Amino acid sequence: MSEKKNKNLHYDGSGTLGGDPAVILVCGQRRxxxxxxxxxxxxxxxxxxxxxxxxxxxxxxxxxxxxxxxEQNLGCMHxxxxxxxxxxxxxITTEGNNIYSNGKLCGQFACLALSGNxxxxxxxxxxxxxxxLLDEFLIDTPTYHYLNGNxxxxxxxxxxxxxxxxxxxxxxxxxxxxxxxxxxxxxPYFLFWEVQPFRGRYYRDDSRGVVVEMDTNEAFTEQRxxxxxxxxxxxxxxxxYAIDNSFMLDxxxxxxxxPIWATYMYGVRFRSRTFGVWYDSKNxxxxxxxxxxxxxxxxxxxxxxMSINTLLWRDIKKSPIEFIVTAYQIGxxxxxxPIVKSFALDMLALFIxx
Length: 354
Prior knowledge:
By secondary structure, this protein is of the alpha/beta class. Helices cover about 25% and strands about 25% of the residues. It has 10 helices and 15 strands.
């Protein structure tokens, strides 16, 4: 997932804009300037079209920083826009939750944890919020957590709906942009927009106006690896995550496609997703994937996943689920991709304790 060596070491997101997508998800290397490039883009949209924007983070502390005496945690509001002012010669300033370009109000700060507070807000008729950006949409630290589990994207959409009011008096959005480093492919946002595993720099779903960018610049990678810091973390998990832009939490072990001779056994529904269970009798392996044969046996583990022609199993003993657990315990359970693996491991956690 890397582009050829590029003398320009700074990020450029213009490649994502082909087809004018509504949803843009970017996973890129740390310190390459994703946030700076996109902030400049949003400011230019305001200057050229009058389209205002909302810059979001998940929690208020990420915006304003710590408030304790001597606290070193400076939120993104601190010195916001410095990169744009330096490299793109803009004049971005802030005051409270307001963002200004050359003294004109062009945007607002908002946090997902307080999305309910935006319900019913009144936007002056001269203000048109059409662009929305969520910075650090993937979580890479146990200090924070997703809001409402896999429903975290809904909190972002609440803010979008409150500020833009799509469909009211002809209003609509332009872009919903999400930026992050690569943490895990099996994340709430890829699941929400049904992003499928892909190779290359871009994934596009033109029918829904969704584009995903995996940005890696070889020259920038080599420059980072040549530093004292780069050498110190060489070969570590942080090296793969921050410098090589590999998904930090995605272990490739036990990721494999089922062989063509595998036999379909049954389907399992878990957290509203359905997976097929396939058995390879030649090698004694079990495979879980998204291939489900209709009108065959279907099982679930919770009442929330119950539906017509589905059997609920609460006790693992002598159940079809026991076969999956046993295969996992002896190292013979394989998954078609990281998303299926993530769901399957969460399902197995109902029965297996460390």
